[in-house]
């Protein structure tokens, strides 16, 4: 699910799933280049482990940060905040 929330002159975007979540001991590692969790599915064998690294870098270039909350076997939520034009 993707949700947005506007406040002041910013918008918060959250992407939430109800998947397998990310184990506590792997949460800091998922933003590292080429890292794939140890719970990889067979259909992810061709994954390069770059997706979250790229997203994090793009957000940093926009002076934002990617935040993550994840509970193993319950899902994950990734969120970030971006500025909105004051005239909108």
The major pleated sheet works out as: 4 strands, antiparallel
In helices, the fraction of residues equals 10-25%
Query: Can you write the helix and strand succession as a string?
Result: EEHEE
Distance between the termini: 24 Å
Strand content: 25-35%
* Shape designation: globular
User: Which whole number gives the mean pLDDT?
Assistant: 85
Number of helices: 1
Strand order of the largest sheet: 1-2-4-3
Strand segment count: 4
Strand-pairing-aware structural class: alpha+beta
Parts with pLDDT < 50 across at least 5 consecutive residues: none
Rg computed from alpha carbons, rounded to a whole number of angstroms: 15 Å
Keywords:
88 residues; alpha+beta; 4-stranded antiparallel sheet; 1 helix; 12% helix; globular
What would you note in describing this structure?
By secondary structure, this protein is of the alpha+beta class. The chain is built from one helix and four strands; from the N terminus they run ββαββ. Helix content is 12%, strand content 31%. It has a four-stranded antiparallel beta sheet with strand order 1-2-4-3, with no helix packed on it.
Task: State the gist of this model.
The protein has 88 residues and is of the alpha+beta class.
Helix and strand layout, with pairings?
Layout (H helix, E strand, L loop, with lengths): L1 E6 L2 E7 L34 H11 L5 E5 L3 E9 L5
Antiparallel strand pairs: 1-2, 2-4, 3-4
